[in-house]
Amino acid sequence: MNIGEVAKRSGLPPKTIRYYEDIELIRPMRHDNGYRVFRETDLHKLAFLGRARTLGFSIEDCRILLSLYEDETRESAQVKALAQDHLTAINDKISQLRAMRETLQELVQSCHGDDRPDCPILSDLSGETADPV
Amino acid sequence: MNIGEVAKRSGLPPKTIRYYEDIELIRPMRHDNGYRVFRETDLHKLAFLGRARTLGFSIEDCRILLSLYEDETRESAQVKALAQDHLTAINDKISQLRAMRETLQELVQSCHGDDRPDCPILSDLSGETADPV
DNA sequence: CTTGAGCTTCCAGCAACTGGAAGGCCTATA
DNA sequence: TATAGGCCTTCCAGTTGCTGGAAGCTCAAG
Questions:
Q1: What's the pLDDT tens digit per position in A113-123?
Q2: Which residues of chain B are within 8 Å of residue A76 when distances are taken between CB atoms?
Q3: Residue B127 CB closer than 7 angstroms to strand C?
Q4: Which chain B residues contact residue A115 at CB under 8 A?
């Protein structure tokens, strides 16, 4: 398979696939003409990576996951710990975003949003303490 | 004020303050010796920026917010629209993260996490369809 | 033989800083 | 007065995960 085909089948853009080779997540062979040759195992790895990235794992986590996947002597505890840490990080991010949302929502709601310059959003940002509702 | 003082008072690290000058969010004066001189208005702007960044606004949004703040002929509708868009983006991100969390949580729960290699997390990533529970 | 699609490499840029090196300045104390 | 330290300066590089674009080679079709 050439890169275009693999891109279609894996759902990853060619640029990304080349990048993954660059950082040595995959190691496709080469044709005599310099073209990359992808085998089923390469495609499989790329799909694995795509899925892991969709779940938000970092590239370095992906590298570890891939190596665990290929290591028949792995302990599932290692995988679980990695996933658990990631889950915790995601939960932290959600909390942060929720805090932002809460504040923003209040500010947006309190702004009349017309042609007058008066604006509680800017007031808040500039450090004025909000009027008690 | 020197940068250290401003850093303390604004809560932003000196590096970040220099960076903000670099991208022309602020324009502090200079002493003869080359040191930056910050006035109250600079400090005020930095606090504004810090707060806006905490709410997740991008630097470019911050630039716009700052210019709106300083524009007495602004219409609050402009500010509100910006904040509303940002709020929408945050909500999108939260949705994404929640989707990740849901999947991850299931996977983590289904993994026994012991010394055996068998692992539903890796199975999922590798494209095996999950066994119906 | 030419055209166009597909492939190659390499370089640059995004966001928003952050770390570190090399060196100037300022103040206090011995 | 010398020096030590702490603060300041600039500049360069690195972070994460790609993405865009340029220049150029290859391949298949007409």
A1: 999 999 999 99
A2: 111-119, 121
A3: no
A4: 75-77
pLDDT attached to residue A132: 56
Asked if B11 and B50 touch (Cβ cutoff 8 Å), the reply is: yes
Q: Which bases of strand C sit closer than 7 A to a protein CB?
A: 6-9, 15-19, 25-26
The DSSP secondary-structure symbol of B65 reads H
List the alpha helices (DSSP H) in chain B. 3-10, 14-22, 40-54, 59-70, 76-110, 120-125
Domains of chain B: 1-57 (1.10.1660.10)
Residues 6+ apart with CB under 8 A from A111: A119, A120, A121, B76, B79, B80, B83
Q: Using alpha carbons only, what angle is made at residue B92 by residues A83 and A106, rounded to the nearest 5 degrees?
A: 115
pLDDT (tens digit, 9 = 90+) per residue, A25-55? 999 999 999 999 999 999 999 999 999 999 9
Q: What local confidence, expressed as pLDDT, does residue B128 receive?
A: 84
Q: What's the whole-number mean pLDDT along residues B89-105?
A: 97
